[in-house]
Design a protein that fits this description.
The structure holds 2 protein chains of 2 kinds. Chain A has no helices and 11 strands. By secondary structure, chain A is mainly β. In chain A, the strands form 2 sheets. In chain A, strands 2, 4, 5, 6, 9, 10 and 11 form a 7-stranded mixed β-sheet that branches. A 4-stranded antiparallel β-sheet of chain A has the order 1-3-8-7, with no helix packed on it. In chain A, 37% of the residues are buried. Chain B is mostly beta strands. Helices cover 0% and strands 53% of the residues of chain B. Chain B has no helices and 11 strands. The chains are: A mainly beta, B mainly beta.
């Protein structure tokens, strides 16, 4: 079974530029998550999709971050404009149905450096 | 507000000995707890979980203990192996409702030495 795919693996941009990350979840998984992991911290949920609808985006900085899930499968996360504090690893995860206590399957992440 | 805390950023253990990783939580709504393991340049992978109706769950060399009254859980690895060297994250969620939002701790880096 293929895992969660993310691209790119690394991205270096200057502040105020824009950047986009892509995620393809495990086939058949209804729920998709984007997490931000800043160095030395645990992953923090940015947004959760159930199929192509947003379940939770309470911690997404909506003035600069946006996300969509096309046709309930792939997802993109965009930052525009980027700030220095956005430097982090962006992890995508998926789970079968998004039920409480369900384990998540993570991709390898995209490491973003904002200079 | 850090609802899930891992107060030890690092731990070094000799191969063959027991590794004990600790985690504390403050939110009494949490009733499902998971441990994830993360190698460098990889995403976290699920290791073991426990529901609040249990106080112990075992899977091979890994055992998780839950003390609800103390809001504390621990992961025991026996015997520790060099391949166990990784960052371990404790995570918690509330089973009620349809969302499985996980709240993660800051992680403990385990190094198993020869």
């Amino acid at each position: 079974e293929a895992g969660v795919a993310q691209s790119p693996r690394y991205k270096i941009i200057e502040k105020r530029q824009s950047v986009a990350f892509w995620c393809n979840p495990i086939s058949g998984h209804a729920t998709l998550y984007w997490y931000q992991q800043i160095l030395g911290q645990g992953p923090k949920l940015l947004i959760q999709f159930q199929n192509n609808g947003v379940v939770d985006d309470s911690q997404l900085p909506k003035d600069r971050f946006s996300a969509e899930r096309l046709k309930g499968v792939d997802s993109t996360l965009k930052i525009q404009p980027a700030k220095l504090e956005d430097s982090a690893v962006y992890l995508c995860a998926s789970s079968p149905w998004g039920g409480g206590g369900e384990k998540l399957f993570f991709g390898s992440g995209t490491q973003l450096s904002v200079l | 507000d850090q609802q899930v805390k891992q107060n030890s950023p690092s731990l070094s253990v000799q191969e063959g000995r027991i590794s004990i990783l600790n985690c504390d939580y403050t939110n009494s709504m949490f009733d499902y707890f998971l441990w994830y393991k993360k190698y460098p340049a990889e995403g976290p992978t699920f290791l073991i979980s426990i529901s609040s109706i249990k106080d112990k769950n075992e899977d091979g060399r890994f055992t998780v203990f839950l003390n609800k009254s103390a809001k504390h859980l621990s992961l025991h690895i026996v015997p520790s192996q060099p391949g166990d060297s990784a960052v371990y994250f404790c995570a918690a969620s509330a089973q009620a409702g349809t969302a499985s939002k996980l709240t993660f701790g800051t992680g403990t880096r385990l190094q198993v030495t020869l």
